[in-house]
């Protein structure tokens, strides 16, 4: 065979390959009508409801497992019974008069994916296991707080302080009911249930090596290793889909329809959740019809979907569950050996560690930020200006609240008063850090830098992108003069925001070294209040204080959107969902 | 020969320890908080940072951590890769076959194109074809890989719908994942597809390999073109070639029979190294085409400071390099009897 | 996988030679490609030197390497008056970036090559000259560095040290020095057997003198060839690191950084696939021509310094 002829063989093979293509796009016909393919980025951490705290994992979990009560359709403030047959209220007597005891009658006839029946014991076990596992940085504190008044099941040295007797008393299986007893009444307790009360099969858990529900082995299962938890990679729930496969090699999760679901079975036969890192690749896949929705697209890339007749962009979705981003001030910066403080003194070449302890400086920064440009260029105009830490759409949001706007006069005035006038006279120099790769936070940093430097030539700000690990470590150590970060609600209640933005035990004040006893008392009071109107008044008060004290400056509340193929039907929006709920979806 | 091979293989543990020691000493530059960031993906988990450091022993001196790690490796435990969500050993055996398959398929056009262009270049030195091939080679190498990758994806997938990203189409993928329908003998999809008698999967996998292979070829054949060219140039000037020409042998015969074989010597040694280099250089290609291979995992692990994964990857790399060098030397000696293996 | 194997071959095919200026210049003039290479590089040098004139920085900037941006537009904008090469996302001026990027490119190339060569010469020199145990140990260290794939080692180093141009230089130098060490060692091993070294030793010259006056000058030429090829490939490697988020900061005048911003725009927008061609073409052309220039120059050096070609021009 001569030299040139052996080229023909691979060409022939390739020609055959593309002639013979399963599922090549043929115009508008629905591709893979029974299977939904979603592409997104972000790795699934664990499929265990006792561990997962990230959206990539929870997206799967809330399709495979079910809670006692769930949100009603697209509402965050109304609930429907799920594995429970009723939503506990004072009226139906399932909530005790003192507001501490919730009774959930468990639905009969529900089967797990392996065919075994659901019992109250499974539900009680699931909740107890959730509380007990309390893994580092996990979601358990969300229930530990209202049920036991604890932020952690361990003390400072890492010893378990949660007692079996307490667990047993707090979560009981009585006949066909699960009874939860709280230490103190907690207004938003029901809104915690939909995302944090998933029921797993106790038998399967034990078979997979997880806790057997006794006091003897409790300590061993507290703060367990991720991969040793019973449902890390195996699933047995009651949801409309069961886990067919977690293909870690291919970075995808495959769900299959649960034929014996307690409601009518889902319409989709299969759901494939695929991780695709490259945004451009995701876009091309959706346009080709190889994927049905893109979970990773940002406003920046959205125009690349516009004008495509096969792709539908659902825009103007009210979010109401995130304040993202805000920029935070560290009131006591660790300036030792910290280049971001500059000289460490108020001499025009740096900032002292107490730079942001003066509220005038914080307010000055608040008035210096060009909110509108940030909104236009960072969100293509699809956002609303924030009025504080509580986002638009959430209970406690006050549309009449006065808040910071871009006002050079007010900014200059505040700067002139700061630190007895020394800030304005001597100037300062500092660095703003952002998490490299996060475009919005980088933009915000740049806008803040430009607008402040424009006020006074003695104001010098540098911006720098750092790796996540450096950012986190610096944030933990209090080394960041200013940091940009955001918050997405764990449950749809303003307490989640008030606590983490304002209470000294909350995530952000902890890093900022911000402490205010008066505020702490106010936040605690607000969550305990049961009367709705009084509660709202308290949160309005909190908003006002947030504006006056300005420990951080909230910027915008983004408007949500979704990208999917035109043949996707049955999707509805609920801002608090961690992902798509595939039960109602079909293609056609 | 066997003594030589044995001696070379003995290098492996030495190089392995050396590489991993290098990695761990680099990690020494990180504070425990920075190393803990691997487990903390969201600031709401910040309050748990201290506990995480304690649980994973991140505040122990790095020398202690290294010794502990080494002790576990000796007993066969490479540790857990947080970025892959499986053990390091399993991650390597899972992701390596994909990259191997891609590299094997890319190797053929790279060698073919490289040698062909390089030879033509040398034979027609300073003519148009020479200039063109050199420019082509340089151009391919100097445009960042992702530019080629995305351009090709846009044209061949976005516009023409010919070659999709990923390893398999949905249908084939579901089939392959089902253990009752498909047995993964080698984890090389094309090979396994044929072994399972599923020709359609074989063709499907080839279709998905097309773009990554083209991208890799574009970027990697440059060096081969240059090396072949200079090697051929050198050989063509040798006395025995001049003699052949003087004897009246036709030019093509001169090239094919005499010059090429001898010119191939350095090319072959280069090829073995090229192969190893390819295996590790596919990071960006794998990211763009969503091809889950070892390059993407290794780079991701490095970016997120997944220490166990990086150390395991380092060991594996050392293994590949030692084997690659060994193959190169053996081939070299086998081809050229003048070289003796010391 | 960069120039490692090319070096191996270079080491084998390039014998030692002392060249004369005249032959060099003559070779250059006869070969149009070499001349082209020289012109390209000189062109870039001029652009780099004249950067403040060709693209004057704004009056009040503290760092001329940060590209000016008029606004923060999320989309790149096509070339227009005032912005001859267009702007990237966040409105960075591409023309400014290309011009000042020439300085950055030279800085990257020269610093990395200088560092790699310096370390390589020391290690390779010692290993080659002293041989024996010293050679074994040093070559094992070289093997260790080579065992780890270049890009990933660079990623590890920059991920640990933090993303900045400075750390990229360090990382690439760490990746590059072993090749030079091997190269020099090979050269020295072949040179030291030469007659004139024997003669020098016989005359009583000490080791250091022999290295500096006889061995090094004869071994240096392959390094010259390889390092000129390296100049281009190092800049492209830095671009790969920028793609992974580990390079110069966003907005810095660095061709690699500018082209990695094009990542989200290559597939175009709406109907027009090539709508944002300028985000790729301009920095890409800069990279290609820079690499091309150095490659041609490097090939020219090799052609000049190969004595077997002498007399057959």
Task: Name the shape of chain C in a single word.
Answer: elongated
Structural class of chain C: mainly alpha
Strand composition percent of chain B: under 5%
Mean pLDDT of chain B: 83
Q: What do the pLDDT scores of chain C average to?
A: 83
Oligomeric nature of the chains = heterotrimer
Secondary-structure element string of chain B: HHHHEEHHHHHHHHHHH
Helix proportion of chain B: over 70%
Outline type of chain B? globular
Approximate strand percentage of chain C: under 5%
Number of strands of chain B: 2
Number of strands of chain C: 0
Radius of gyration of chain B: 24 Å
Which structural class fits the helix and strand makeup of chain B? mainly alpha
**End-to-end CA span of chain B:** 9 Å
- The total count of helices of chain B amounts to 15
Compressed to H and E, one letter per element, the order of chain C equals HHHHHHHHHHHH
* Biggest interface between chains: A-B, 68 and 65 residues
Biggest pleated sheet of chain B = 2 strands, antiparallel
Can you tell me the residue ranges of chain C where pLDDT is under 50 for at least 5 consecutive residues? Answer: 308-313
Based on the model shown, name its key terms:
heterotrimer; A: 588 residues; five-stranded mixed sheet; 18% strand; B: 342 residues; mainly alpha; 74% helix; 1% strand
Structure at a glance:
The complex is a heterotrimer of chains A (about 600), B (about 350) and C (about 325). With about 600 residues, chain A is of the alpha+beta class. Chain A has helices at about 10-20, 55-65, 120-135, 140-150, 165-170, 190-195, 200-205, 280-290, 360-370, 370-380, 410-415, 420-425, 440-455, 470-475, 495-500, 505-510, 515-530, 530-550; strands at about 35-40, 70, 80, 100-105, 170-175, 175-180, 240-245, 250-255, 270-275, 295, 310-320, 320-330, 385, 430-435, 460-465, 480-490, 550-555, 555-565, 570, 585.
